[in-house]
Give the backbone structure.
Amino acid sequence: MSGRAARLQVAAGIGYSFFLSAVTLIMELITDVFYPVRLILSPLWAIYVGQWVDAGVILAVYVLLIVFASPYRFQEQSNYYQLLRGAQKLSIYTIMAFAVISMAFDAYAGSLRARIGIFILVNFFSGMVGGILSTRAQ
């Protein structure tokens, strides 16, 4: 894969990571109306602290986003299938990286300004990791 395509994959991974965190936070806020606990981004951290409802909601969001990116009803040799297969790999790798790296955001209990900075770094790094891994997988 060319360097330009790899840079585009990394940029798409960073954008997808911010989209993923926004969707996850929105679902967490909706869940917190009925079940008020601390906001969590990582399902691994939710399992660690015993917030099973949050872990289930986050995993459901991840599964829905992967299914949304999956290529269905296309022939395997078509150009659309190859394009959507790359998007699905990007979403899978970005979600896996985000689930692991976002534990840093959940574990930190400091000031709001530092948490916002960690939030941005978590999204940036998980998008980079997802983009690089999806580039290597193609």
Notes: The chain is about 80% helix and 0% strand.
